[in-house]
Design a protein that fits this description.
There is one protein chain. This protein starts with a helix and ends with a helix. The protein has a single domain, classed as DhaL domain (Serine Threonine Protein Phosphatase 5, Tetratricopeptide repeat, Alpha Horseshoe). It contains 9 helices and no strands. It is globular and about 45 Å long. The longest helix has 20 residues. Helices cover 71% and strands 0% of the residues.
């Protein structure tokens, strides 16, 4: 399967709506380790993304991803919003530099997003941030690409990997940012950023299963 911009738009729109619908839960989880406003930030990011989808009906995949990143950076200018925007921008650049489609391109895009987010946020795997779930998804997608898997099964596996990584953060203490000031508060609760990414990937997998 090669992603067309119209298909990507449907997936992104559905994922954004699912994340926005989980705003209250994301705020609650973020409250154990942060400002308690991740849901508010991601709702703003979702609105920005959906506005791009409406205003860029004829954009190609790289331009659509780049436009989403730019809009999120402007309309959700918090730490989390900046990281998500960076992920979109880096994914767009990676897709623009590659030909073809399928899981290999998807894996390259996600890995580029991960690299950008880590560079911007200075987070590593194990620090209890969205990087943990994103790294797990990237690893899964890379493995699926090597196995020549279908996009549907690859995205489902990536969502499952992200969910497992999210569950693992329940027993992890945050190592960076404000959350690291009182790391014990986060114990017993999954990382909010990881939960957000898992919701997005699970929704993407559900949309693809219906295509």
């Amino acid at each position: 399967m090669t992603f067309r911009a119209t298909e990507l738009a449907s997936i992104l729109g559905s994922a954004a709506d699912a994340v926005a619908a989980a705003s209250a839960e994301l705020n609650r989880l973020d409250g154990f380790a942060g400002d308690g406003d991740l849901g508010i930030t991601m709702s703003a990011a979702a609105r920005a993304l959906n506005e791009v989808l409406v205003s860029h009906p004829d954009a190609n995949v790289p331009d659509l991803l780049a436009a989403c990143g730019t809009a999120i950076a402007k309309q959700a200018p918090s730490t989390a919003g900046t990281l998500v925007a960076t992920g979109f921008l880096q994914a767009g650049r990676a897709v623009a530099e590659l030909s073809g489609g399928g899981v290999e391109v998807l894996a390259r895009a996600f890995n580029a997003a991960l690299a950008g987010i880590q560079k911007t946020g200075k987070a590593a795997v194990g620090d209890r941030t969205m990087v943990d779930a994103l790294h797990a998804a990237c690893t899964s997608l890379s493995e699926s690409a090597l196995a020549d898997a279908r996009v549907r099964s690859a995205v489902r596996a990536a969502a499952e990997a992200a969910a497992a990584a999210t569950n693992a953060t329940v027993d992890m203490e945050p190592r960076i940012g404000r959350a690291s000031w009182a790391p014990q508060r986060a114990l017993g609760h999954p990382d909010a950023g990881c939960a957000m990414l898992t919701i997005a990937l699970q929704t993407a997998a559900e949309v693809l299963e219906g295509v």
